[in-house]
Design goal:
CATH architecture of one domain: 2-Layer Sandwich
Order of helices and strands: HEEEHHH
Strand order of the largest sheet: 1-3-2
Number of helices: 4
Structural class: alpha+beta
Largest sheet: 3 strands, mixed
Radius of gyration: 21 Å
Helix content: 25-40%
Length: 147
């Protein structure tokens, strides 16, 4: 009788490979899940600010560059930044993943903080108060399936 090589490796340890197919959310990385939260927050704002947001490029980086970090320990690490348009480069809103994750204790709080940071940076870019950009700013927000 031939051994079934598809089910067990040569040492008899069982099936090797991924536990779930790539399309299943369990295989998403933390970075991919964070990117989705940023996209959800931007899509939420596009309902009211589509024309203005078309002029902004959104990006996620792990940590802020050293140039944005303060020299003293009193200044907090930035959670995001916006940069004006220069030449052919559009204006940018950059969200920093690791500092936001460090300040969050769970997925719900992470989603709320990402939303608030996106709203704050868009508000700074537009020269408005965050409450004017999104009336639900600071009240807790959770991305929905229709966002």
């Amino acid at each position: 009788m031939q051994p079934d090589h598809r089910r067990r490796d040569r040492r008899g340890r069982g099936i090797r490979g991924p536990f779930a197919p790539q399309a299943v959310p369990i295989t998403r990385t933390r970075a991919a899940a964070f990117d989705e939260l940023v996209l959800d927050a931007v899509e939420h704002l596009e309902v009211r600010w589509a024309d203005q947001l078309n002029k902004i490029q959104f990006a996620v980086e792990d940590v802020p560059p050293a140039a944005l970090l303060g020299r003293s320990t009193i200044e907090p690490v930035p959670l995001g930044a916006w940069f004006p348009a220069i030449g052919n480069r559009p204006a940018q809103v950059v969200i920093y993943r690791r500092p936001i994750e460090a300040r969050s204790t769970g997925l719900e709080e992470l989603a709320e903080l990402v939303h608030d940071v996106v709203v704050e940076k868009v508000a700074e870019y537009l020269g408005l108060d965050p409450e004017a950009v999104d009336p639900g700013y600071g009240e807790g927000w959770e991305p929905g399936p229709d966002q």
